[in-house]
Amino acid sequence: MEALNSLIREADRRSALSPLPGHAIAHRASLYADDLVLLVAPNANDLQCVIQILQLFAGASGLVTNVDKYLGVPLSLSRLKRADEQSLVDLVASKIPTWKAGGLGVLDLRFFGFALRLRWEWLGRTAHDSCWARLPFRSEKSVAVMAAVSMTVNIGDGASARLWTDSWASVGALCHYAPNLSAAISRAGKKRSLKDGIFQNRWARNIVGAPTTQVLCQYLRVWGILRDVILDPLQEDRFIWRWTADGRYSASSVYQAFFAGSSSLLGANELWKTEAPPSVKFFWLVLHHRLWTAERRRRHGLQDDDACILCGQEPETGDHMFVGCVLARQLWFSLLAPVGLTALVPATTEELASWWLRQRLRLEVALRLAFDSLVLLTSWILWRERSNRTFSRTAPGVQELYLKLVREADDWVQAGFKTLSVVCPLWSQNLAAM
Ligand SMILES: [Zn+2]
To answer: Lesser CB count within 10 Å: N end or C end of the chain?
Structure first.
C-alpha cells in the first residue's frame, strides 16, 4: 500500500493531478487498514490519471481495483445541494431494492445521514487524536445545535468543554440558562473553553452588549455558578451522549431516538418535519422531559421551590408550562381564536405531546403544518420568557406574550420558515382591532 501512496505523491509532485482547493487538505491519500481514501478533483484528466496509477499498481502487486464498483462521494467545503447527493442516494437505493420498496426496517437515508453527521460532532469533541479529527470539517448550524442538546459534559480540566454552549453545569448550557447575558457576549467569547474562560474571570471581559437589568441579573447568577467550578487538571473533560445507556454515541441510538417515530419517542417524526429555526431544537429536550424546569431542578436537589413562575400554582413541568398552565392556555386561546380554532385550546391536565399529535390530525394539511410550527414557536416564546423572568421573578402578561409571539412569527416567515404565513395575517388583523 505504501507503494501506491508513493505513486500518488509522485503524480502530485509532477502536477499530473490538479491541486485540491484550500490548504486544509494535507494528504491526498489516506490509508486505514485495507481501505484507501483518495481525494481527487472531479475532472476527466485527473480520474484518468488515477485509473492509470491503479492499473500500474495492480500490475505490480496483483491488487486489482474494480473501477465499475466505483461509488464516488462528492465532497465540498460548502453545503452540498440536494441534486449533488441525489445520484448517490439513487445508486445506493438501486443496489438495495428493499430501501426503495419501503416496508419494515427501512432506513430513511436523509434521517440516517443526519444521525451520521452528528457522529462528526461527537468525534470532533471526543476523539482529538483520531486521524479523522484532522480532516477539514465545518458543522452545519442545525446539526451543531442538535449535538449540543445531545451531549452533557462531566468537567475535568475544562479544556474541551465550551463555557457557553456545552451542557456542563447542572442548569444546562449557560446560553439557555442566561440568554440575555449570552447574547451580550462577543463571538470570540462564545467559543471559549471553560478553563480558558474562568481563568482570571476572562469570560466577563467578553461582554460587549449593553448592561441591561436582565443582563446584570444573569451576570450575578452566572458569576455564582462559575465561582464554584472546580477543575481537575489531571482529568480530561468527559462527554456523555444522552440517548444511550453507556453514554457513547451510536448512530442507531440517534436514529431510533429521533427518527424512528412514535414507537420510541412520541412526536419525534412530526418534530423532525416541522419548520422552525435551529434554536428551537430545544424542543427535543421537551419531548424527552430533559428540560431543566423548576420541577426537575427540585427533583435533583438544585432548588426547593418548584412552583411555575407563570401562574405560581402548579409544579413547573414541561407539560404544565407549555399547555396546562393558565397563562399558556390563555395564550393558546389568543392565538387560535383569530384562526377560528378555539376547539384546539388545551385542557388543564393535558400532556404536550399527546395533545399536539391529537389536535394536528383534526386539521387540513396547510393548517396542520402551521400548527406544528406554532406549537414549537409558542413553547419557545414561553420558555424564553420564563427563563428571562426567573431572574426578575415577575410573570409576563398574556398580551405581552401574544405581541412577542406574533412579531417572532413574522420573523420566522421572513427567514423562510413559511408555514406560519397562512395565520400571520389573521393575527395582524386581530392586533389592529385590539
Ligand atoms: Zn403555571
So the answer is: C
